[in-house]
Amino acid sequence: MTREYQITHRTRYRYxxxxxSSYGRGFLTPRDSGQQRCQSYRLNIDPEPADRSxxxxxxxxxxxxxxxxxxHRELVVTGRSIVEVDPPPAEWYAAGAAVAPWEDxxxxxxxxxxxxxxxxxxxxxxxxxxxxxxxxxxxxxxxPLIEVLRDLNSRIFxxxxxxxxxxxxxxxxxxxxxxxEGVCQDFARLAIACLRANGLAASYVSGYLATDPxxxxxxxxxxxxxxxxxxxxxxxxxxxxxxxxxxxxxxERYIVVGFGRDYADVPPLRGIIYTDSESSIIDVSxxxxxxxxxxxxx
Length: 298
Description:
- This protein is of the alpha+beta class.
- It folds into two domains: about 5-85 and about 265-290, Immunoglobulin-like (Sandwich), CATH 2.60.40.2250; about 90-250, C8orf32 fold, CATH 3.10.620.
- The chain is built from five helices and 14 strands.
- The radius of gyration is 20 Å and the shape is globular.
């Protein structure tokens, strides 16, 4: 059934000296789509920016820009939203392209024209012989697409260890393959490289994952996090989400903020500061709270 969430995403920067000018841009506004509706969104920035704006990028993601000109040693960026997410129709994973041979989902013809760029490798290249070798067992000729996705998801989940802090946003797929550890963005990027190595169009998805507390335990506020997963194109422009970090297919627990060809297309926040500060601290807290009595749609 449809779920409704209240999301609070707060990023706090602290500096050892004054910052005289701070430029920031980020992707923090949940998208609207056929399965998701952002009912409200508010972005608070403290200190108040002298200039701010929003725009859409080539993929339809909402980008927020700000420029803080008053000297500060602390900057707090807080996004608050209310989002409804529908469960995926059963046929997405059980009929049509999902049960057809995976080769049929290689983008071709007019329907696949806009997806073609999601087949292309990155610069610098991530599709290596090691990636092809790792992907190969999942991509048996003629295998149904859904079996390919489930198998690749499960293998990455089993073969790699989730270790917070083990990588950075600059870590290459080859390094993750060698280390056999990483975080959600690394496992999403590995899955994407495997899919693209076989001619499928795959996107990097940034957003949030709603998690439930253990049985008998209270929800803890602020311990959630941003999340990343992969999505693969199928004919009729339908994208199927897969989350190798949790060995899951995307459903109504997944809230999409943005998608692109890689992390660099949709970072939550990035920017430039002018300062003599020699050190800084960044604290991020995310809370994805189900709204009791929210919409119920079968």
